[in-house]
Amino acid sequence: MGDALPRLTVAQTAARLGVKAETVYAYVSRGMLARERGSDGSTFDPLEVEAFARSRRRTPSVHHGRAATDGRPLMVLETDIANIEDDELFYRGTPLAELVAAPFEAVATWLWHGEFGVDPVFPRVPDGMPTAMDVIALLPPQANSIDRLRTTVNVLGAEDPTRHDPSVEQLRRVGAGLLTGLPRALGDTEISPDASVAASLWSALGGVAESDSAGARAVNAALVVTADHDLAVSTFAARIAASARADGYSAVSAALGVFDSPLHGTASLRAVRMISDVVSGAAPEVAVSGAVREGGRGVPGFGQPLYAKADPRAEILLPMVEQLGDARPVLDAVRAISDVVGRRARLFPNIDLALAALVRAARMTDDAGSAIFAIGRTAGWIAHVIAEYGEQPLRLRPRGRFSGA
Questions:
Q1: pLDDT surpassing 80 at residue 2
Q2: What CA dihedral angle connects 337, 342, 345 and 346, to 10 degrees?
Q3: Which of 43, 45, 264, 317 has its CA 20 to 30 A from that of 27?
Q4: Gap between the Cα atoms of 60 and 38, Å rounded
Q5: H-type helices in 280-396, by residue range?
Q6: InterPro entries of this UniProt entry (predicted)?
Q7: CA 347 to the chain's CA centroid
Q8: Neighbours of 182 (CB within 10 A)
């Protein structure tokens, strides 16, 4: 079996570890990495490289005003929206596990107001959606779900005569309008104007009919668990835009631009393909090694530096996938992959693996997990924009330290 595993070249190993090829050879000479020599040169076991990468990871620190060598943290910002303690995620001090059964609209409203008891008020359908759908129809065939969402945000902003109203109430209206409208941009299915955000997404993304009720519950849970997660790069982009007093649509558009990246919002796409390979009969070792070799960015769906073990969002969402149409082979594949990755690379499942399992079991398109993630996180982006509006304008404009000759 070992001979059949896709392996990493020296260049791929160096890129994964963020070092020069000479450094990789130094690791080999010190007995820190094993290699195999062949007619094409030295190759490395992808999972051993992942385990080594994890062992080299250190808690970031800042000294004398400079960031650690891995670039984190560039700065520390106070936030009362989400926090992580003892491998548990909290929204405004409430454990995520206690919120996951609540309607996503109620959780979003709570994040925006900062208090319980405020009734969610969501529009039926934003006035600009017909125009947005006309523009989406002009996108090229290769346009993905995030392209459709970004287009919709920009069109809805252009169509909203009150977009530049700087009030917090306007930001809440923008958030509610986006959460209602964005699911409708993802498909051609007729959606009831009274449908919840989760039910709208389930219909738009083509969830299997026999699992409608369970599917909508799973999507609702996915929306809730992805709403916020510390200051992720897309959230920071939204706050930077808000620091310059961008309107709500522009701030969400800025966040989506950062979100649409393989190391953040679209990471579940590779995980879907890896799961599909195992479901189709590939050995989990081969599927995992192939995914690492192809992507060059670690094992898709595994590892979260903010948690010592499993991502609690994945632990909440994965059990809900069991009720969906193709759940058994998908979850069998997830367990097999998790066993291999946990044993050989010492990595635990993250939210991207759970989203991949959800969309694969529901027979949605491969990038549906990214769309669900983006719409869930929109609630958090708006909460952060509201918070940033309460701070000094342009406080997030850093100064550069010239390092040239």
A1: no
A2: 160
A3: 264
A4: 38
A5: 284-295, 312-321, 327-344, 351-361, 368-389
A6: Citrate_synth-like_lrg_a-sub (IPR016142), Citrate_synth-like_sm_a-sub (IPR016143), Citrate_synthase (IPR002020), Citrate_synthase_sf (IPR036969)
A7: 18
A8: 27
Alpha-carbon distance of 350 to 300, in angstroms, equals 9
Distance, CA of 365 to CA of 94 (rounded, Å): 33
For the cut 60, the answer to whether the pLDDT of residue 247 exceeds it is: yes
Residue whose structure tokens are 């930077």: 240
Do 367 and 146 form a contact (C-beta atoms < 8 A)?
A: yes
pLDDT at 214 over 70: yes
Give 39's pLDDT tier (boundaries 50, 70, 90): confident
DSSP character at residue 57? -
Region 329-345: mean pLDDT is 95
| Structure tokens given for 160 | 């909203």
Res. 67 pLDDT band, cuts 50 70 90: very low
> Within a 10 A sphere around the Cβ of 212, how many other Cβ atoms?
13
Contact of 47 with 345, CB cutoff 8 Å: yes
* Collapsed DSSP state (helix, strand, coil) of residue 44: strand
Measured from the Cβ of residue 197, the count of other Cβ atoms closer than 10 Å reads 27
C-beta separation of 258 from 283 below 8 A: no
C-alpha distances in Å from residue 405, one per residue of 64, 66, 323, 399: 22, 19, 61, 18
Burial profile 123-157: b = 16 or more Cβ within 10 angstroms, e = fewer = eeebebbeebbebbeeeeeeebbbbbbbbbbbbbb
Beta strands across the sheet bearing 8-9: 8-9, 41-44, 36-38
Query: Per-residue pLDDT for 1 more than 80?
Result: no
At 13 the pLDDT is: 87
Residue type, 162: T
